[in-house]
Amino acid sequence: MTCENVSHLAQRVRHFVEQQVLPREAELGRCDAAAARLTAQLQAQAKAEGVFGNFYPVADGGRVASLVDYLTVAAEEGRSEFAPALLGCDATLDCHMLARHANPSLRERFYLPLVRGEQVPCYAMSEPDSIGSIPATLNSRAHWQGDHWQLTARKWFICRAERADFATVIARTDDGPLPSALSMLVVPCDSPGFRFVRPLALLGRQQGQGEVHLEAVRVQPDQVLGAPGQGLALMQQRLGLGRLLRAAHWLGLAQRCFDALCARVHSPRGAQARLADKQLVRARVYRSFREIASARGLLQDAAAKFDRGQANAIEVNLAKLAASEALSLTVDSAIQVMGAEGLSELSPLSGIYRGARTTHILDGTDDALISTLGRDLLEATQPGVAFDALAPSVHLHGKGAP
Length: 402
Description:
Elements: H1 3-21, H2 25-28, H3 33-48, H4 67-77, H5 83-86, H6 92-101, H7 104-115, E1 121-124, E2 141-144, E3 149-159, E4 166-172, E5 182-188, E6 194-199, E7 209-219, E8 224-225, H8 231-266, H9 268-272, H10 279-307, H11 313-338, H12 340-343, H13 349-358, H14 366-380
Parallel strand pairs: 1-4
Antiparallel strand pairs: 2-3, 3-7, 4-5, 5-8, 6-7
Domain Acyl-CoA oxidase/dehydrogenase middle: 122-217
Subunit structure: Homodimer.
Protein name: Acyl-CoA dehydrogenase
């Protein structure tokens, strides 16, 4: 897609979000039957207007071929915390994983309905009794029963768990070394033994997370994504792209908060309070803009390396952390300048604020990623290694390759 076409698509997405989504955020946030009907209505409208599934694989209907180009569109999709789901973005990562690794059966049964917007996916990795950042602690098991796998698992904090049509489940399929012990199994959510247990609120707010139990679920050999034993490698691949997609939407939301911050300063009430003359307000505007611009640059760098197939673990984690920090700082500044109104239901900022806090946990906690980055940077700069500050991950023996 040419730059002009990407720009035009971004404008159409922005128009849809501004006109159809932002005025209905209060309704969409209620998580009831009416919200579900409105979601279906807006998804149908997004498909009709050609703004649904923008970064799906181009061969199957996607509109943007490169991640670098998609960032412009993603920034507009991310202006509402509800828009990514309405525009099919929640399925983007599953679409790319299935496009790359699905066998013909999975492609026909799950991938093609997914790109048509007919199914909802979820990804089941986290477990109550394991450490999310340590795959070796996963307890889910799939035992081979002669002609099929029998899967038993307990998973929680699973996005879209309650309304998903199928789940990609991480489970141990071998007792050997971890690199060949895990597999990704694609399981319909209506399979016998698959049970949704409960929704799990985040900071007192329902955001689509839930817990599921799988008890002796029958999984056919052709329901393995890739090949048995490739689960760890596919997890790393999925995390890399997933963090970049999330970061792109977070920056769209951060930009909306920055716009709200500046709008309040320039408003009649802001003029009455002489906000533009206050040094602390100016400092908040400066820091917010700096964090967004810095995160955007890091994200563009990571996306360019992703498009080239270049190892980019350091760049991906930097971009994820920076986007999270930019969103948190900017929404906090907007609330501070807006005052009590920013804390209330009269403004979307309170909901965005709670969502921003979750970004420091989802897709890898800040503490875990910072520790990993420190380790990787020390490895890349050890004596005898030619360190390239512009592409540090290429020295990590391909560990960050997408």
